[in-house]
Amino acid sequence: MFEKFALETVEAIFQKHQFAVMVGGTGLYVNAFCNGIDEMPEIPSIIREKIISSYKKHGLIWLQEEVKHKDFEFWKTAEQQNPQRLMRALEVVETTGKSINSFKQIKKIERPFNIIKIGLELSRNVLINRINDRVDVMVKEGLVEEVKSLLPYKHLNALQTVGYKELFEYFDGNCSLDFAIERIKINTRQYAKRQMTWFKKDLSIKWIHVDQKIDISEIINSCF
Fold first, then answer.
1. Could you tell me if residue 209 is inside a domain?
2. pLDDT, tens digit, for every residue of 101-141?
3. What CATH number is associated with residue 92?
4. Which residues, in sequence order, are CB contacts of 147 under 8 Å at separation 6+?
5. Which residue, of 50, 74, 107, is where some domain finishes?
């Protein structure tokens, strides 16, 4: 859905402008826009619900062992601390009997426009401070109240993410609010580190440190 939306959006932009700028940090979405996304098998709801229920009951170690045993090819290069990716792989192998890797064609789709990727880098200390400040602002602007309003839906996959799952633990009485907020900061920093690891593998990205005095337009023009 995102791939389709993004392509339609840039097509509309190109009707009036020479360039479109896409800003973001989620690798899967960037890759879907730039290279297309592989078709994955339809997963029966009974299998998905069984896996989610088992993960909630037995935890991450159980999930890791299941994936390691049933889809070792994926496990070797998987984000082994990411339950959503692991559950997805387990869904596929239990539905089809095949590794999720077998559905990844690594077949790049050529887009009808040029793509220039620019990555911005911060020093670690600056990044940590910005993440901490951002979390404090989110809490000040109502994050706790937002999560409280979502308690009836906390079982949904979309809410098993940083910023939500920590506060669900607080509302379940498993930790203090201060502890939950600190965990959000720690988990966000870890997520940012994983993002950088992901993007550093993409050799087409031109990296710029934010302290560098560089005109971005020069980089763009040099690509043509």
1. yes
2. 888 766 678 899 999 999 999 999 999 999 999 999 999 99
3. 1.10.20.140
4. 163, 164, 167, 168, 171
5. 107
Q: Structure tokens of 24?
A: 């973001």
pLDDT digits (tens, 9 = 90+) for 176-192: 999 999 999 999 999 99
Query: Has residue 54 been placed in a domain?
Result: yes
DSSP for the chain, written as a single string: -HHHHHHHHHHHHHTT-S--------HHHHHHHHH-----PPPPHHHHHHHHHHHHHHHHHHHHHHHHHH-HHHHTTS-TT-HHHHHHHHHHHHHHSS-GGGG----PPPPSS---EEEEE--HHHHHHHHHHHHHHHHHTTHHHHHHHTGGGTTSGGGSSTTTHHHHHHHTTSS-HHHHHHHHHHHHHHHHHHHHHHHHT-TTEEEEETTS---HHHHHHHT-
